[in-house]
Amino acid sequence: MILPSSATVDGYGVAQIANIANTVVSNPFEHPARLNGLDTTERYRIPPLSAFMFAKIGQREASLFSKSAYNLLPEPSMTAAPGQFDFILLDPPWDNKSARRSRQYQTQREAEEDPLEVLKDMLGKHIAPGGIVASWTTNKQSVRDSALQAFETWGVKLAEEWAWLKTTVHGEPVCPIDGVMRRPYETLLVGRHIDEAIDQNDDLITDDPIRYRVLVGVPDLHSRKPCLKSLFEPMMKDSSNYRALEVFARNLTAGWWSWGDEVVKYNWEGHWTKIEPHDAN
Predict the structure, then answer these.
(1) DSSP 3-state helix, strand, coil percentages of the chain (rounded to 5)?
(2) Looking at residue 14, what is its pLDDT?
(3) Does residue 15 have a pLDDT over 60?
């Protein structure tokens, strides 16, 4: 489904967001589009050149996604075959006490199908040779092990670990670093798909120890992660022409594909405040 050009001005109306479930929706224009729901206050900003599928990660939905990826990306790029992506970011709904208490989203344990097992079966064919895969994890060893098992299934080698240190607006960690029940950081595992055709001199293809990086930022809405586009783009072979996909996405990113059952959640205009030029100083 392609949003019409009028959506960039007046918005494209749908009776319910659920009416576009299990369908890849695309904004092919260089400027944002607006998706309107039944309620006049239910308006979502769709970033330029983005595409998304509002669907859970299940076997049926995975088949629909794969079919759409091959249909909408039928030609090879300089770095990826049809239906493949140079960068894939995942934020799985790992089971943890905080998520169960908040009821903000359905965790891996509560899902009818284990979404990570579904992805193990199908995501590998959508990773371009030499593509980068990154997955957020919790601080549980079992979660880290599950993520690394998925990497292994997809032929991805761990190369870096990033820690997002969550701070207050005053620069202090939101809780003690060594807290027993909660820690102020989350980990992003970053790996590269190993393929004979890729450049073995690539910075991420090395037998050196894992490289560590730290991101520092103030969290805002529950479970919303920092936007990583500007950090990963320089790692692409062609930063101006690459294909990216976020799975378990809760917001859309300009130029990227996104897939998840809350995929436009943080694109709701109510989550954003317009900043006037004089307020930014």
Answers:
(1) 25, 25, 50
(2) 64
(3) no
